[in-house]
UniProtKB/TrEMBL annotation:
This is Peptidase S1 domain-containing protein. Residues 37-272 form the Peptidase S1 domain. PANTHER family: PEPTIDASE S1 DOMAIN-CONTAINING PROTEIN, POLYSERASE-RELATED. Gene3D superfamilies: Trypsin-like serine proteases. It comes from Drosophila virilis. Belongs to the peptidase S1 family. One of its GO terms (molecular function) is serine-type endopeptidase activity. Residues 1-20 form the signal peptide. The lineage of its organism: Eukaryota, Metazoa, Ecdysozoa, Arthropoda, Hexapoda. Pfam families: Trypsin. Keywords: Disulfide bond, Hydrolase, Protease, Serine protease, Signal, Zymogen.
Length: 295
């Protein structure tokens, strides 16, 4: 609940106008994450998958899901985190938010879905220090409407303040990107185990900057491909970063992710500001009403 809604509660409580529980989105308190091994398809019942969304253009061409272009993560019932380069062009011009669709609660990219499983985007916010393919490659998509509450298969991702990511840690990433270089996008959500390495390990990558990025080694020949950008990396079950920057999808020995801890303040602040501005439009009117009734 943001501070603006809190204000409503205080104002309206004496009038008996507030219904309990409104506006909450059940938190993911589930930390019994089990590490999956290597790479492959995510099983149906996995807790990993419910915070992942498919980011698409408004209309599909021939099949549901053929308009998927990036992956994203549910931060709150109205905010999606993804890579900034997914929603900007090379001149940093932002895509029209009204041309972006977010589909959640589904494991298969090509499945048909109804209106409860999709949301339109109202606003796109880029990190102010974003440099294409280099660092701060994060953006927030703010949805026109909240996601439905009580949806089992769509929940905000588990976060831990200042999560410590240390060398050698086993983590997992997932997405619907190309299954091999220049190949088709995956239908089922795929996962890949990765191991955190020091920054030195990534120094041969194009444009690798240590600041703000996490460097990992993929299991076996694993790689991130077009369609996987914006995918989360989870360590110990918590959001550690998202796939950003330029990544090769062939002959890969290292992968980089934007370090979530490095950008979490900006994310929190941005989400708060966005939810504040949309919920407070009526407040002067409500306040006047309150004064009239109470006085
Ligand atoms: C991620 O960012 C935080 C905050 O800037 C930093 O303390 C931490 O060392 C970074 N983690 C990695 C793996 O670089």
């Amino acid at each position: 609940m943001n501070s603006c809604q809190l204000l409503y509660v205080w104002l309206l409580l004496p009038l008996g106008l507030v219904s309990a529980g409104r506006g909450t989105f059940t938190r993911n308190s589930d930390d019994e994450f089990q590490l999956l091994i290597a790479g492959g398809i995510i099983p149906d019942n996995s807790k990993y998958t419910r915070s992942i969304v498919s980011i698409r253009t408004l209309k599909y061409i021939q099949y549901y899901g053929d308009n998927h272009f990036c992956t994203g993560v549910i931060i709150s019932s109205r905010a999606i985190l993804t890579a900034a380069h997914c929603v900007t062009d090379r001149h940093k011009a932002i895509m029209n938010p009204h041309g972006i669709l977010v589909v959640f609660g589904t494991l298969n990219r090509l499945d048909a879905y109804d209106d409860d499983y999709k949301r339109h985007v109202n606003r796109v916010e880029l990190h102010p220090k974003y440099r294409r393919y280099i660092n701060y490659d994060v953006a927030i998509l703010y949805l026109r409407e909240r996601m439905p509450e009580n949806m089992r298969y769509a929940k905000p991702i588990a976060k831990r303040r200042r999560l410590r990511i240390v060398e050698g840690m086993s983590c997992i990433t997932m997405g619907w990107g190309q299954v091999y270089p220049h190949g088709p996008y995956a239908n089922q959500l795929m996962y890949l185990d990765v191991t955190v390495r020091n920054h030195e390990f990534c120094k041969d990558m194009d444009n690798f900057k240590a600041e703000g990025n996490i460097c990992v080694e993929p299991f076996a020949e694993g790689q991130l491909c077009p369609g996987d950008m914006g995918s989360p990396i989870l360590c110990q079950g918590y959001l550690a970063g998202i796939a950003g920057g330029a990544q090769k999808c062939e002959g890969v020995k290292s992968i980089k992710f934007v370090n979530y801890t490095h950008v979490e303040k900006w994310i929190d602040k941005t989400v708060r500001a966005l939810s504040g501005s949309s919920n407070c439009i009526l407040s002067p009117i409500l306040y006047a009403l309150y004064i009239m009734i109470v006085a």
